[in-house]
Specification:
The protein is α/β, with parallel strands linked by helices. It has two domains: 7-105 and 214-266, Rossmann fold (3-Layer(aba) Sandwich), CATH 3.40.50.12500; 107-212, Rossmann fold (3-Layer(aba) Sandwich), CATH 3.40.50.12500. The chain is built from nine helices and nine strands. The strands form two sheets. Strands 4-3-1-2-9 form a five-stranded mixed beta sheet, sandwiched between helices. It has a four-stranded parallel beta sheet with strand order 6-5-7-8, with helices on both faces. Strand 7 (186-189), helix 7 (198-205) and strand 8 (209-210) form a beta-alpha-beta unit.
């Protein structure tokens, strides 16, 4: 690939409805580099017609679609894929079948960025329900000792976009407690649909506030750039080993046709 060709990034909204695809497309338009082309995609309704995957049972339903999407994107020549859920749903599974494509997700990406900006950070989540699962991801990423805590506002995924004034007030109140009571030096917003609130919160709280959707997209873009500039492709050795093409074809369960239900292309430029 020529160096002047656009980086091609896919941001996968891992649900079977396109309701929030335009929200993510607006995010991409506002933060991508000029030489990056971003495809915002969602799954087919048959993969799970959910508007969120707050529950493990919902995650299980959409995981097959995420794996198939990763294989399809890799075979289509995308440089990187970001899975747009803070649970990092099926992240390791998707990597196995993604070929040379980089695969990342919001929680892991946000943790990396927070660790580069602070020694101690907190995570604001929607509901207490989420904490157990997200805490496991923090531990898996080796960040448990740097976490000041999880702070829930008792809003479900869909609730964040219902009343923006109330959402911002709750995030501000909760963030203030994390910073002033628990000495968090940075905050991560633990839902990919809190888009747009991070700037005001950061200004008011005096600490960096990381939007996970932006973190996932920018981490994917950064890794794709490193792959092109330095040749740093994902490992496929040992624990990162991929299934063989022969087995994939034999079992026929990870096809890469007719995968996506919706697509918005944000062109380079």
């Amino acid at each position: 690939m020529a160096d002047d060709e656009p980086l091609r990034i896919m941001y996968l909204n891992p649900v079977g409805t396109p309701d929030y695809d335009e929200v993510f497309a607006d995010m991409a338009r506002g933060c991508k580099q000029p030489n990056t082309e971003v495809h915002i995609t969602s799954l087919k309704q048959s993969d799970g017609g959910f508007t969120h995957i707050e529950f493990r049972s919902y995650e299980t339903v959409v995981s097959t679609g995420i794996v198939r999407a990763a294989r399809a994107a890799g075979r289509a020549g995308f440089d990187a894929l970001a899975i747009g859920c803070f649970y990092d749903t099926a992240l390791h599974d998707a990597r196995e079948v993604s070929g040379d494509m980089v695969v990342t997700a919001p929680c892991s990406a946000s943790l990396e960025i927070a660790a580069s900006l602070s020694n101690r950070f907190g995570i604001i989540v929607g509901r207490r329900k989420w904490v157990n699962q997200m805490n496991a991801t923090v531990r898996d990423n080796g960040m448990a000792e740097r976490l000041s805590g999880f702070y829930h506002v008792e809003l479900g995924v869909n609730d964040f976009q219902t009343d923006h004034e109330r959402t911002e007030r709750l995030l501000h109140e909760t963030g203030r407690r994390a910073v002033e009571d628990d000495f968090a030096e940075a905050l991560i917003l633990g839902c990919t649909l809190e888009i747009g609130f991070y700037r005001t919160l950061s200004d008011n709280l005096g600490v960096p506030v990381i939007d996970p959707s932006i973190a996932a997209l920018k981490r994917a873009e950064y890794a794709a750039g490193l792959k092109r500039a330095c040749g740093w492709k994902p490992s496929r050795k040992w624990s990162c080993e991929s299934p063989s093409e022969e087995e994939i074809e034999q079992f026929g369960i990870i096809g890469d046709e007719d995968v996506f239900g919706n697509r918005i292309v944000v062109d380079a430029g």
